[in-house]
Amino acid sequence: MTTQTTRGRRRATGPAPEPRPAAALQAARPRDAQRDERRGRRSPFRQVTDFAAASGVGQKAGIALAATGLVLTVAIPATGPVMATGPGTPAAAQPDVTAAAAAKIDFSRTAVTTKGDPDGKLKQLLSAQSVGTITRAASAGSLGAPLEQMVTASPFGYRVSPITGGAGEFHRGQDYAAQCGTAVHAAASGTVTFSGWHPYGGGNRIVIDHGNGLETTYNHLSSSSVQVGQKVSRGDVIAMSGTTGASTGCHLHFEVMVNGDVVDPLGWL
């Protein structure tokens, strides 16, 4: 029961009513299967600060880096002296690589052949089999050009003699047009076995032995700059072209000999 006060407010004159029963709790939400995974995933901000703390930069510096939006990329070399195995795991020191004081390290590349090592390719080709059994496909490109510009004037094989005009002359090499005094280069590394006058039409002639029965000859030269027994390398200037001997004009007569027999130089160039 209530009474009215002078100010119009009601005052309770009896005991307070009992509280109403609480409403039934709502049913529990179904558990989100991906919630735990999202909670375990660290934000980029957290990753930066954790890295700063682990690397000794400091938490404040890490927060500053994260606030500026910088992305840190950490590369750990596989050959480093110390490798971390995981968060909270002590780093394991890698064993040192040592060698005996008297150990010898061989950097010889004689067994390595590439397109940039034509002499190595030729050496391997000659040592792998008898020079007489090497196929044209295998020998092609193994010798270098004896002239900077290779212009064929007369090919290898039978032809009409430019000296006598008779048919059926066998031309033992390739003739390349070259003005007198043009530099002539060694086709490959080797040893000079002949440098002088050739009495059978070659004029001033140079012969280089490349090993295993392979030789190259350079004919009708105006001058020679090598001597018998001299070692030469591929591309070395060994002479100047000319028109000495049985020649009708300035050019280079180039021969390739296999076990003493001439073969078409185009099979080796």
Would you give an account of this structure?
The longest helix is centred in the first third of the chain and has 12 residues, at 44-55. The strands form four sheets. Strands 5, 8, 9, 10, 11, 12, 13, 14, 15 and 16 form a ten-stranded antiparallel sheet that branches. The chain is 16% helix and 27% strand. Among the domains are: 45-70, no CATH class; 152-267, Glucose Permease (Domain IIA) (Distorted Sandwich), CATH 2.70.70.10. A hairpin with a 4-residue loop joins strand 10 and strand 11 (203-211). It is built from five helices and 16 strands. 21% of the residues are buried. It is an alpha+beta fold and 269 residues long.
Give start-end ranges of low-pLDDT stretches: 70-84, 106-114
The CATH superfamily of the domain at 152-267 appears as Glucose Permease (Domain IIA)
**What fraction of residues sit in β-strands?**
25-35%
What gyration radius follows from the Cα positions, in whole Å? 46 Å
Q: Pairing-aware structural class of the strands and helices?
A: alpha+beta
The appropriate CATH architecture of the domain at 152-267 is Distorted Sandwich
Annotated CATH topology of the domain at 152-267: Glucose Permease (Domain IIA)
List the topology elements.
Blueprint: E1 2-4, E2 10-12, H1 35-40, H2 44-55, H3 59-67, E3 82-83, E4 92-93, H4 118-128, H5 136-139, E5 152-154, E6 157-159, E7 169-171, E8 174-177, E9 183-185, E10 190-198, E11 203-211, E12 214-224, E13 231-232, E14 237-241, E15 251-258, E16 261-263
Antiparallel strand pairs: 1-2, 3-4, 5-8, 6-7, 8-15, 9-14, 10-11, 10-13, 11-12, 12-14, 12-15, 15-16
Helix pairs in contact: 2-3
